[in-house]
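Re: the pair you flagged

First of the two:
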Amino acid sequence: MSNSNRDKTSTNSIITPINSLALKAVGCLIIVTHHYTLHQGDVHNNVFNEFSTLACGYIAVALFFFISGYGVMESEKRNRLPFTRFLRRRLSRVYIPFVITNILFIITLLFLGSYPFSIGNLLVHIFGIELIDSVTWFVPVTLLFYFFVLVLSSLQKRQLKACCMGALCIVYIILGISLFDIPFYAYVSSPAFPLGYISSLYSHEICQGLNGIFRWILLFMSAIIFALLSWAIMGHIPMHGHLLHGVIALNNIALLGIIVTVFAGRHYAWFHCKWLGDISYEVYLCHAKVFMVFIATTGSFATFHPLLLLIIIPIAYVISKLDKAASTLLTANK
């Protein structure tokens, strides 16, 4: 057997678990780079800074949403959980790490004298009623989509599930824009979750359909569209308001088209980064808070050296260990 055959094997999944972890690792690296360049402020210094600052945040979040939607449906297909177990498992994976990270960084900011202490502030910040940093808007939106998954779990027909999930996402976006005035970044990448959910429902058909030259044509088209829309988002084609938001959403879909055409029906043994994939969510939760602590300590982000980004890894690892301990207590059978 050749090396290429050993490294690429057939599968009925769009994204295998080990490739999913590697994609999460890539996603967390993209989002950290995005927020680092955003803090640097010199957006138009070069093309890399433009792309990282103006486009990477959206595509990283879209990637996380897609994998999350895909993964939750894959889990449901394997083992449909009762309401209480579903709730405990999702809370342990998403909400508990969020709370633990908030507690640790509030303690740090208190020690530095940079946190406005009050019981009210502690409660709203620890439990996410009010976010310490805007980066973690991802958490309540993810929990909302998990609630949608739970509501739809009683439906048997997958076509109906797919239509309802898409409809609920549209309702969320419309209500968010018209009634609740949520920031655009909290809805512009959200369609990636139902796309991941629906992709899992139709994973067999997608894997069977992406064969031969059609896969390469679709990949080429998705890559061209992604490049053109990214160029527009970077400011080289003037657009504003909801037109820009629509372009961002379409760019995310083009990115997901690339992901699906590359991975559907294939498992890449070489694409393996379990250690970073395992702590990718903790990296997402803590990286912006590390920046906050640095600014609180030095008074400026100007002296933050790129090598200091490495400190995020051990912090996220420690938080992941605390998360697992708390999750074990939460999900243990009594």
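Second of the two:
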Amino acid sequence: MRCSALFLLATALSARAGDPITDQFRAFLGDLKGRWAAETHSESRTVLIKEFRRFDHSEAVAWLVAEVVTKETAADVVREALRILGGYKNLAAVAEIIESYDRKLKDREQKAHFLPVLGRLTGEESQKRIEQAFKQSDARMLIGACDAAGIRKLPEFRPLVVALLKHRTMQVRVAALQALLAMRAEEALPEIFQLFCAETSNRVRYEAWCALTSLVRDTTLPYDPAAWKEWHTQRVAEVPAGQPNPWGTFPSIQGTPAQPAWFFGIPVFADRICFVIDTSGDMNNGWAVDLYAEREKKEPEQIPGFFSVKTRWLLARNHIRRCLELLPESTEVAFVFFNKEIQTYPEDRVRYLKNSSGTRDRIFRFLDDEVKRTATTDMYDAFKAAWGFLGSGNADKNFSSGCDTILFVTDGLPADGEMKHRPDRLRDEVWKATFLPRIRVHTVGLHNHAYELLKNAAKDSGGLYVHAQEAGDEAEPQDLEFWPAKKKAFEEARKAKKS
């Protein structure tokens, strides 16, 4: 009753005759409707709705939800609408957002994407909807609820998020860990530590390790839980006398913690990987390697088989080979090779391959003899193929069938397919497809590549971006935003070079 009365009052006040804001919005909307109906390109539609930022108004909310959030299929338009709605603070607009969530969003996927909008609002009504989402059985709703809780950062949400650390769905456990990290929930460290030791999924254990090392502000702590025994003993000793011990005894460690499988300097911890590799004609171009510098590097940082690297393709192939050799045999893998056309391995796209020694030999032969390298670059269809294996992806309720990590390599710009010359839209399509399944996208750019697209696609998913460069190029191998230690060393080297 309170919410309905508030909504009716707020709407009546905002829509009263002669209200200049209402009059301005209705005039704007009357002009927009014709252009919206006539415009078919998502890029232009995104530009049109950006004007809604000026109207923190209940009628603006109603139109954005009815015409964009519930009907639009282009991810860039939907994402812009969600950004705008998340910025509205007017009382009537907030009431309409909540009313829209309750009554106008019927699809669970839409509601899950909408939950972070509620996380950006204040007030009891939005908080109540987020708490209700934590009671759902649908994994997508639980993931959206975790994101909303991570944005809102209220202590009331923490026990709800912690409870999901034991959820059967890997992606929900990942979302819960990410939410606790966003909330800086240091009181949840004992539960995160228990999961770190007990988890058998490489992907989840890696997320737990990231959360632990960040919350305790010590990135030197190793990935192997057994090495944390002294740290655990210290935490137990710090519990005040007479207080219950939340840490318990040192837990048993499940499985053998995997060491990172390196890919272009990126540490890879995953259960199921899809390699998405550019095979356009330019990948046959030469690649210069500084042989002296490679000899001086530690092995994980060396270009694998650097003596044999003569082209961009051979560079990518060697990194794939080493990554597979370092991955546990339990890891499942699939491949998408893209130029103007898409070539997949396995070709039927109905299964991933266990990374056994026999499978690796077959993959290596395929890389050497059967990958077609010609024509232009269709990145959009490549990404679609990656999350299309096993019919998985954002529309699939069963997240467990898809990959959890994409390793993407290109040496150019989108030059073919539906997203030609539209990298901003491609970025948002990647976001929409990876947001709920929690697919981490690591991207590698060679030569003159789509820098902003690769950097932002990685950042949106929590992945890493690497700019691989040839001998003679200024040595800046990663997007340094993600690598603080390397950033400091790089800046010191650049300063020394200039002095």
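The mean pLDDT is 88.

-B.
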